[in-house]
Amino acid sequence: MASVHESLYFNPMLTNGVVHANVFGVRDWVTPHKMALLVLLSELGRAGAQLGLLERRRLNRLLLPLLQGPDMALSRLRKAIEECCPHLAGSVHIRLKLMAEGELKDMEQFFDDLSDSFSGTEPEVHKTSVVGLFLRHMILAYNKLSFSQVYKLYTALQQYFQKDEKKNGADESEMELTNPEELDGKMEKEELDGPLREEEIACSGPLSQKQAEYFLSQQASLLKNDETKALAPASLQKELNNLLKFNPDFAEAHYLSYLNSLRVQDVFSSTHSLLHYFDRLILTGAESKSNGDEGYGRSLRYAALNLAALHCRFGHYQQAELALQEAIRIAQESNDHVCLQHCLSWLYILEQKIFDSCVLLEHSVNKSLHFGLPYLASLGIQSLVQQRAFAGKAASKLMDALKDSDLLHWKHSLSELIDISIAQKTAIWRLYGRSTMALQQAQTLLSMNSLEAVNVGVQQNNTESFAVVLCHLAELHAEQGYFAAASEILKHLKERFPPNSQHAQLWMLFDQKIQFERAMNDGRYHVADSLVAGITALNSIEGVYRKAIVLKAQNQMSEAHKLLQKLLVHCQKIKNTEMVISVLLSIAELYWRSSCHTIALPVLLQALALAREYSLQYLASETVLNLAFSQLILGIPEQALNILHMAIEPVLAHGAVLDKGCAMFLVAKCQVASAASYTPQKKIEALESAILNLNEAKTYFAKVDCKEQLRDVLYFQARLFHTLGKTQERNKCAMLFRQLHQELPAHGVPLINAFK
């Protein structure tokens, strides 16, 4: 391999008007674009005090991306300079024109004059500054060129300038043929394109090592912080293939290719790129130089560990376990405790798919703290909190544990983990049914600034935790009937996390769920049924549950019962307690509709026991409401009213608008049923109180456009007004009921309907 490297060490080529050498041996070379930058620096030095402070500041901000970024067309460069300092752009153009239309000695003289920038007691440029290093690299690279290479560079400069002149001539002729309004529109479009968006710049030839490193670091940073501003997956892969074509051993390019393949869930390409990254890392000796004799083994064990993580991400748990065992074996042989801790964390993740065990996780947290690995320790604490939340531990204890992890985050400035911790708190409060607390945590994350240094214009919180919090926020707004606000949040999510991004599935699922709930509320069951397929593709359990809800609404009781029984068995097996309780409540409702009221009671008691055992307060309150409805049906409304007081407060404080409406409707039904045994005066007071509760329920149902429930409330109110002798109010309710009844599918409206 060494002979190949030697033969390619310096191989001058001319590709697309750019003189360059292979990146194996040369870090930088002279190109026409870089000559234009040298002219800009020279003119900047000549201008001196003539430049205003604002113009100089703009130019200084412009220089760094120009020096580090890839080559660009002269017209684009000139436009960028004009935006900062118009008269300097003219000076650069004139100087380049004189050089390109002059003789070869003019270019020679230009490079000779560059050295004067460092001379004198107070030089214009310091040798160790960014500009000074760039000048010295260019002078050195130019001095190494042979005469034939210098001539090729001069020819390339002429072509570079002539191409710009031809483009300007074409633009001028087009301007003559275009009316002023179209011209203004075109100019506005060009202004919107922006002068320095590297993602729009196609690399016509191989980049220098510096340019390649800058390109890779920039794209990797964008993939982490703001994926929407990074190149599209296909475009980025094309650029990476172009880099690897000229330098197949560029390890960092292979790793970025691996990250890019993960974006589109490409298993084969991501595995291929990851293996090539570690192969090239060992081949180039980068690891052995920095880690001595351990470099080779270190690459192997971390390669196996990364491969295990990759397989785990795609759900290939057996392959992940084999790769993890290999990483553990090599790490134990090398006595690498840091690698072993990472392996232990992944071992817990793999075993979690089979059985719940806190032993490995607690051991991992303790060892991580012992070896000074705060990131791993904090992730372990977060996982412990999540597991214990599903196990039904008290919220106060979980928040205390998260407070301890937050101390680690702030102490070590772990910005990403701070975001994860807040998103975790939001999800825990949602699980426990405390929507107000969840909303507060979500707003906390949204108002935070990231601790990480990112480029101007890059979103600071474009991470999974940010997506999770926004999705919860959209669902919370939808539950309260603010569908326009929920749509705005989802629109923002779609812009920030496009469909091809790795976190897009989060908002896709929430979007489908919100649409499903709206369709069910509006009685459009055929629309809700069409959304089930999309929900199932994103989350199979949610999809099956919602399919059963649609079947139940369409009075297909036997099919819905079979589906719910299968789902119940599956959720009990995977210990998804929240879904188990929801399924039990739906099964109880099926029994009501089938007039099997006594059979529904044991099912509801089982759901209530689970909700209380796992501290799911909101689900417990909802179960108590269902129990109250069962007692109402069984003819004991007084007992139903008594237990309603236990559950209605959490529902009104933290519940969805639809649940609030159902609760108030149930209270009114119980009041009416209880009033049968009252004295006439007390009965009138009870009925009037029931009417007030029905008005409140009607307000809630109207907020979420739940027409079927509105129709039931109006029917009930009309009957009550008739009993009280209020003819005008009765007729008004009857008219509204008739309008809704004509809109909705015709079926009987009993006095006591299902709870929800």
Biggest sheet: strands side by side, in what order? 1-2
Share in β-strands: under 5%
Number of distinct beta strands? 2
Assign the CATH class of the domain at 209-441: Mainly Alpha
Radius of gyration: 35 Å
Distance separating the two termini = 74 Å
Low-confidence stretches: 1-26, 175-204, 287-293, 453-459, 748-753
Q: Kindly report the average pLDDT value.
A: 80
What general outline do the C-alpha atoms trace?
elongated
Supply the CATH architecture of the domain at 209-441: Alpha Horseshoe
Strand count, sense and barrel status of the largest sheet are:
2 strands, antiparallel
Helix count equals 36
CATH superfamily of the domain at 209-441: Tetratricopeptide repeat domain
> Percentage of helical residues?
over 70%
What do we call the CATH topology of the domain at 209-441? Serine Threonine Protein Phosphatase 5, Tetratricopeptide repeat
Structural class: mainly alpha
Keywords: Cell cycle, Cell division, Cytoplasm, Cytoskeleton, Mitosis, Nucleus, Phosphoprotein, Repeat, TPR repeat, Ubl conjugation pathway
Pfam families: ANAPC5, Apc5_N
Subcellular location: Cytoplasm, Cytoskeleton, Spindle; Nucleus
Pathway: Protein modification; protein ubiquitination
